[in-house]
Amino acid sequence: MTEEVAQNSEADEGLVFHEGSRLTDLKIKQNLSIDYPRLEPLHHLKIELMFHIFKIRNTWTMAHWTTLGIGCLAVILSSWDWGINEISNGGDFDYIGINPSDEESGIRSVSSAAIALTLISLGLWVILLVRLWAIFPLMRSQAISLYVALLAAEISQFWAHGYDASYPFGGDSFAFAVSIVGLILIAFVGFILQRAVTETRDVHVEERHWHPDPRQVDIAKRDHSLIAWSVALLTYCVVVVIHAWSGAHYVSVRQPEEIPGWWILKMVHLLTGLLIVWLIVHILWYPQIMLGGAQIRIESDRARLVGALRKATGDVPTQQPSRSGKCPDCGAATNVQMLANGEIEAACAIEGCNGQGGPGEKCRVCGTRISSRVICNGCNTSAPVGNHFADEEAW
């Protein structure tokens, strides 16, 4: 399950899962699933979760953990009032409205500290989204979809509690209708995201992992299984509703701290928020690492068909051709190229090998890892790959 497995495999990259390990190489005991065959799906889920943990340990960098920390900080600042007491005191119900020009508007009665804390937390959520775009460029639209699902849960639950402070126990029909609309939107976002990633995975396996032996194709499909990822996405859709409901239910009463045990809702809101951040990073990370080097877009088969038709009819702008890198010191051309889609490929450094691949990935011919630094043949200067395109825009 290590580098030796990858070296003994055929040169066909369809047999290698990026970092040199494969899901099908991971073996664990399955006592329950042997005695109770119906529990076999749980065994496969356990294997995939362990595989995800293994990949996280080997692929996550400081950028991933920093992004996760920023998201957790955003949740903490947006779920706790930190002594300002704007949430715990319930506010002043004599003032309503959000018109800043109206002296009797409720927003004018909010303390400056509460407004500052709100702006800081919103800024952190924006920074989190920007960092997710930078780390997972293949999943940029999916990151927005996850944000939309979270926003739909928040708005629907606060709207429902505005009509029924004890929702869902008050029985108000309009509050139920608003909540159901939010649930439908969340389910729709989750369905579209899951379908796009699954169908893109299928295309990836068919195109990049094809093999004359059908058994090898079946192994490749198993290596790219999305069971654990789908469970994480489903968990996200459920947790965002719990997170939004607990927060709305906590602030739906005046002076929440005077009700015994009401603080539990506040803790549920905080803990589920931290779980949401982890799930966002996890949901975006796994398809990125599995499909990131395939030069393929995450989209459904229908969207891919529409794109192909537009390209066939000439209804899409022509892409810029790939360009070679230049030494940052002497300006000589180097053995590194930026493709039309922005991906960078470098030549293998092994003598006699004509393969290439992305920096940090394996050579498609010999399996040797491509260095993230390139040595100029003219001046022997060693520089990071990105520096060879310093005078060019990345996209």
Number of domains: 2
Report the C-alpha radius of gyration, rounded.
Answer: 26 Å
- Terminal Cα separation, in Å? 36 Å
The secondary structure category is: mainly alpha
Question: Strand-residue fraction?
Answer: 5-15%
Q: Helix proportion of residues, in percent? A: 40-55%
Q: Can you give the mean pLDDT?
A: 75
Overall body shape: globular
Give the number of helices. 11
Going across the biggest sheet, name each strand in turn.
1-2-3-4
Low-confidence stretches: 1-20, 316-320, 391-395
SSE order in H/E notation?
HHHHHHHHHHHEEEEEE
Count of extended strands:
6
Question: Describe it for me?
Answer:
This protein is mainly alpha-helical and 395 residues long. It folds into two domains: 60-92 and 109-302, no CATH class; 323-389, no CATH class. It has helices spanning 3-8, 31-35, 40-59, 62-79, 112-135, 140-163, 173-208, 214-223, 227-251, 263-291, 301-312, and strands spanning 323-326, 333-338, 344-347, 356-357, 373-375, 382-384. The strands form two sheets. A four-stranded antiparallel sheet has the order 1-2-3-4, with no helix packed on it. Strands 5-6 form a two-stranded antiparallel ribbon. It starts with a helix and ends in an 11-residue tail after the last strand.
Ordered list of secondary-structure elements with their pairings:
Blueprint (H helix, E strand, L loop, with lengths): L2 H6 L22 H5 L4 H20 L2 H18 L32 H24 L4 H24 L9 H36 L5 H10 L3 H25 L11 H29 L9 H12 L10 E4 L6 E6 L5 E4 L8 E2 L15 E3 L6 E3 L11
Antiparallel strand pairs: 1-2, 2-3, 3-4, 5-6
